[in-house]
Hints:
Blueprint: H1 6-18, E1 38-40, H2 61-71, E2 81-82, H3 88-91, H4 97-102, H5 106-113, H6 123-151, E3 153-156, H7 177-188, E4 195-199, H8 206-211, E5 218-225, H9 233-236, E6 241-245, H10 251-268, E7 273-277, H11 295-311, E8 316-319, H12 328-341, H13 357-365
Parallel strand pairs: 1-2, 1-3, 3-8, 4-5, 4-7, 5-6, 7-8
Amino acid sequence: xxxxxxxxxxxxxxxxxxxxxxxxxxxxxxxxxxxxxxxxxxxxxxxxxxxxxxxxxxxxxxxxxxxxxxxxxxxxxxxxxxxxxxxxxxxxxxxxxxxxxxxxxxxxxxxxxxxxxxxxxxxxxxxxxxxxxxxxxxxxxxxxxxxxxxxxxxxxxxxxxxxxxxxxxxxxxxxxxxxxxxxxxxxxxxxxxxxxxxxxxxxxxxxxxxxxxxxxxxxxxxxxxxxxxxxxxxxxxxxxxxxxxxxxxxxxxxxxxxxxxxxxxxxxxxxxxxxxxxxxxxxxxxxxxxxxxxxxxxxxxxxxxxxxxxxxxxxxxxxxxxxxxxxxxxxxxxxxxxxxxxxxxxxxxxxxxxxxxxxxxxxxxxxx
Length: 368
């Protein structure tokens, strides 16, 4: 949705008329029950001549999370769901062709990823070394959406590109994986017609907010530092439950607000799925987040959200989003281990997590 001009609007109208049925995708194939609903690919990690070090984002954190989970004996390679790259047809479910064409210019990608030297690279290298990892993480989020419905929960170890909307990227977010995941679910999974986004990254999630501005099927709760990027006043109009934090907010106040408002959100609207954007840039000392949450506070925050999903029997998909310190990978892994130790996530299919009878039928009967 958002502030589309006439050309963009017409492009989407024409596309919707031409595509009466969902396109064929490789992202919704069946996953063996032996796999955990944890999605990852080594292709997530961005490594190219040290360029990734020019952005404060730890562009290898996703692989580090997986390595920590292996060390904890929680997972092994053969039980992880391997993410697949989202194709152009997958991306066109949300993105305009004009926006995707813009990504064929290195200067546009340099601006979106906030890595200026990308400007000087040939675009074929930008596609391979920068955008392909982001497309693979985007595919991972879409895959995890289906898994969450089937299993009761899923985690994409990457994704959470919440600053990207259908026709504009920014803040290291080139593809709108959250919007795409919800649109895929609405189009392809019978019985999924309402979604709640709980965005707890330190930054406002203006991308999905612009995309769902006029869509009453999507309820958005956003908790963020009011003083930092993006400060998108127009996008704020899409937030149904807005919690703006001050500089240096600490655990006690933060966790109390999260607990109160997560419970309030799921009581206000009972969704068919929760998309949880679990950014760790709320961590004390983060160079961009400006908040002061402890590692234990982040673990407790994730626990609050998963407990609410379990209590209300709502499938939940977690994406890892922002987090700009080297120690965030360890915290994400510790949080996932904690959720497992508490019985809030488990490898077994959680049939009892879903109340929607149409979704129950889809899980048992296997709607493709």
